[in-house]
Automatic annotation (TrEMBL):
It holds the Pfam family ACOX. The lineage of its organism: Eukaryota, Metazoa, Ecdysozoa, Nematoda, Chromadorea. It is found in: Peroxisome. Residues 288-450 form the Acyl-CoA oxidase C-alpha1 domain. The active site is at residue 435. Its main location: other. Pathway: Lipid metabolism; peroxisomal fatty acid beta-oxidation. Its cofactor is FAD. This is Acyl-coenzyme A oxidase. Keywords: ATP-binding, FAD, Fatty acid metabolism, Flavoprotein, Lipid metabolism, Nucleotide-binding, Oxidoreductase, Peroxisome. It comes from Caenorhabditis brenneri (Nematode worm).
């Protein structure tokens, strides 16, 4: 049975066409599972199709040959074209559709609206009062103003309690005075701050009558709405080129006693009254909700980054022929090598797993904001914070590794910017740092774990949240042949042991006289290990849950093969813990390895279609190696010919330096 007739094109590379014919499932149906619903998967396709009909968005110059200024200009041109077609392309105010539109058209190198959509608007939604939303949210959604999220400073990013920018309340004028007291207090890093935004959410230490109340969000106009000139009292600019994201103007920002009205403190959850009295929020960390929002999206977004790299690597591996196996008359596709499969397929499994987690955490955040805004119920905050802290750290780390493996799997051509994998890598690994440096966030997750272990030790297991319930599971002997649940049990034992060991170490240092902070630091590596295992257990369980819920038999079968690969790969990856603690025997290890190798063989015929199912267009992929039609070589040559260096036969540097040097050498 061939499912993919609609996607097979006679003009495509025959090796790729052959791969598509061997698929055992329908890629449209798989896309429904990936994107969470039939409706959204279909909308994505529809949007992609509509974009392909807009000539001004098609024949764009390769970004690799552009300067930063050109990249920023090109992104702005594309945004302008999109703006003209916005209402025909997507449902207005649909965040997922807007993200898809931007990803598809502008790519990943950043653009002036990136933070506007992902943090500025969400902060207004979660932190602004109804009255404030009336004033700013509509304008922001209509893109009359462009905003960003200015929190990190030159001197502090992780430790928010030490942010130095102050917002001092003046009861006589009912204004806040924003001030940057030192060089280290300059806001530094915010995306789209440098040149594009005219508004910002500024996180500043709220000071009333000489008392500090910690970081609070303020909406601040930075630039004149007509001239775009910075307002008096504001210093703002671009921080310079970065490892990636060079189409974005990450910026710096300083205030010189800059006054804003009292009503610019976002006051949905806390208030400053005209006389300066302060009304506390229902939860001390409610002002951090925009960070939780982005973290809750990161499993999905990082999964999609890794998926892009893997589409490229898998398609290319199916058209790249090199070396022989049995048949000496034809070289094999490199995808047939077991090492290539082992390099790529576990990452394919992780992509699916991460995306399933993302679908869940995005919904959890939406529910949380509804609970908080409608009912003042903040009870879900701690759990979502610890879950998303661990998840963003684990997912970004493995995404970086997976993309780098994808690059290496493409051999020399993977290193060329024509593959686009280096850009995807640069963008993805920024996620290890932004929205909370990974170690810092793993340690946040560890705080919840240690508390849970302490509850068990104090005899209160009934107080554990469902995610921590495994900490009470007794040790058992497990027969791995019975299926996924057996793997979960072993993983639970490994994660539990590590959580108890790390907590025991923490307590030991404290009993020996160290303060909790010092003991914490002496146990930090063990604590981060516990957080990783805890998070990987969540990922594994989410993958199982999701696959179990699928109704399409052929899609479910293909994903069951991926799930089995994931279970065996993950368990093998943490086997040192299991062996050290006697949780697993070496015979079980051999069983896992054999299962892993046979999973690779099962997945092989579906590999291309598992990646085609993401339905990225060539416009979005921007990769010569990852082209849908597989015509790699002639297009690599065309790409190289379009390099600015090849626009003349003799470069001025040759005439100016090399020729005279060679002439001198002849004398
Ligand atoms: C939407 C994505 C679109 C996809 C497109 C992809 C491309 C996107 C392009 C660009 C996006 C880039 C965006 C990047 C934006 C940024 O980076 S914004 C800046 C982000 N900065 C951070 O994340 C800073 C990290 N630091 C912190 O979050 C905090 O300082 C801290 C959590 C480490 C500590 O906070 P602190 O106030 O000092 O808290 P403590 O006193 O230590 O903790 C007291 C208790 O509160 C708990 N807690 C902390 N935070 C939260 C929270 N958010 N919710 C609930 N609870 C929280 C903490 O765990 C403590 O609990 P216990 O006392 O019970 O232990
Ligand atoms: C591409 C990009 C986009 C960004 N966009 C924005 C934005 O839009 N808005 C914004 O406000 N910010 C933004 N940032 C800033 C980003 O959020 C911070 O860089 C990030 O939170 C890390 O903080 P830091 O730079 O202070 O790192 P540091 O905290 O200085 O980290 C340095 C090292 O110290 C370690 N460390 C720090 N504290 C601890 C601790 N308590 N325990 C153990 N180890 C610790 C870290 O693990 C790390 O190894 C962006 C950053 C990047 C790279």
């Amino acid at each position: 049975m061939s499912f993919l007739n609609k996607e097979i094109c006679d003009g495509d590379n025959p090796d790729l066409t052959e791969e598509r014919r061997t698929a055992t499932f329908d890629t449209d149906r798989m896309a429904q599972v990936i994107y969470g619903s039939e409706k959204f998967a279909a909308r994505r396709r529809q949007i992609t199709k509509s974009i392909s009909r807009i000539p001004a968005l098609q024949d764009t110059k390769p970004l690799a040959f552009m300067t930063r200024e050109e990249k920023i200009t090109e992104a702005c041109r594309e945004l302008d074209v999109l703006s003209d077609h916005w209402e025909q392309l997507i449902y207005v105010n649909d965040e997922e559709e807007a993200l898809h539109l931007h990803r598809e058209v502008i790519g990943m190198e950043g653009h002036p609206f990136a933070l506007h959509e992902t943090m500025f608007i969400p902060t207004l939604v979660s932190q602004a009062s109804d009255e404030q939303q009336e004033k700013w949210l509509g304008r922001a959604r209509k893109r009359e103003i462009i905003g960003c999220y200015a929190q990190t400073e030159l001197g502090h990013g992780s430790n928010l309690r030490k942010l130095e920018t102050t917002a001092t309340y003046s009861p006589s004028t009912q204004e806040f005075i924003l001030h940057t007291p030192t060089i280290t207090a300059l806001k530094w890093w915010p995306g789209a701050l440098g040149k594009s935004s005219n508004y910002a959410i500024v996180m500043a230490d709220l000071v009333i009558k000489n008392k500090s109340y910690g970081p609070h969000p303020f909406i601040v106009q930075l630039r004149d709405e007509k001239t775009h000139q910075p307002l008096p009292g504001i210093t703002v600019g671009d921080i310079g080129p970065k490892m990636a994201f060079n189409g974005a103007d990450n910026g710096f920002l300083g205030f010189d006693h800059f006054r804003i009205p009292r009503g610019n403190l976002l006051m949905r959850h806390n208030r400053v009254e005209p006389d300066g009295s302060y009304l506390k929020p229902p939860h001390a960390k409610i002002g951090y909700s925009s960070m939780v929002k982005v973290r809750s999206r990161m499993a999905m977004d990082q999964g999609l980054f890794m998926a892009q790299a893997l589409v490229i690597a898998v398609r290319y591996s199916a058209v790249r022929r090199q070396g022989f196996l049995e048949d000496k008359s034809q070289e094999v596709k490199v995808l047939d090598y077991q090492t290539q499969q082992h390099r790529l397929f576990p990452s394919i499994a992780r992509v699916y797993a991460f995306i399933f987690c993302g679908l869940e955490t995005i919904q959890l955040y939406e529910k949380l904001i509804l609970d908080v805004n409608k009912n003042g119920d903040t009870s879900g905050m701690a759990d979502l914070h610890s879950l998303t802290s661990g998840l963003k750290s684990v997912v970004t780390h493995f995404t970086g590794q997976g993309i780098e493996q994808a690059r290496m799997a493409c051999g020399g051509h993977g290193y060329s910017m024509a593959s686009y994998i280096s850009e995807i890598y640069g963008v993805a690994v920024a996620g290890c740092t932004y929205e909370g440096e990974n170690m810092v966030m793993l340690l946040q997750c560890a705080r919840a774990l240690v508390k849970a272990v302490e509850l068990v030790e104090e005899g209160h297991p009934e107080k554990l949240s469902p995610m921590m319930a495994y900490l009470t599971k007794p040790s058992v002997t497990v027969d791995l042949t019975v299926g996924p649940e057996a793997y979960v049990k072993i993983f639970q034992l490994i994660a539990k042991k590590q959580a108890f060991k790390a907590t025991e170490q923490l307590h030991k240092f404290m009993v020996a006289g160290d303060s909790r902070d010092v003991a914490w630091n002496k146990s930090a590596v063990e604590l981060t290990k516990a957080s990783r295992l805890h998070t990987r257990l969540y990922i594994l369980k989410t993958f199982i849950r999701r696959v179990e819920s699928i109704t399409d038999i052929s899609v479910k079968a293909a994903l069951t093969d991926l799930l089995n690969l994931h279970l065996n790969y993950e368990l093998l990856d943490v086997a040192s813990y299991a062996l050290a603690d006697g949780i697993m025997s070496s015979t079980q290890m051999d069983f896992i390895k054999n299962q892993l190798y046979s999973s690779l063989e099962k997945i092989r015929p579906n590999a291309v279609s598992l990646m085609d199912s993401f339905q990225f267009s060539d416009l979005q992929l921007r990769s010569v190696l990852g082209r849908r039609d597989g015509h790699v070589y002639q297009n690599l040559f065309e790409w190289a010919k379009s390099s600015p260096l090849n626009q003349s036969e003799v470069l001025p540097s040759v005439t100016q330096y090399l020729k005279p040097m060679m002439e001198k050498s002849k004398l």
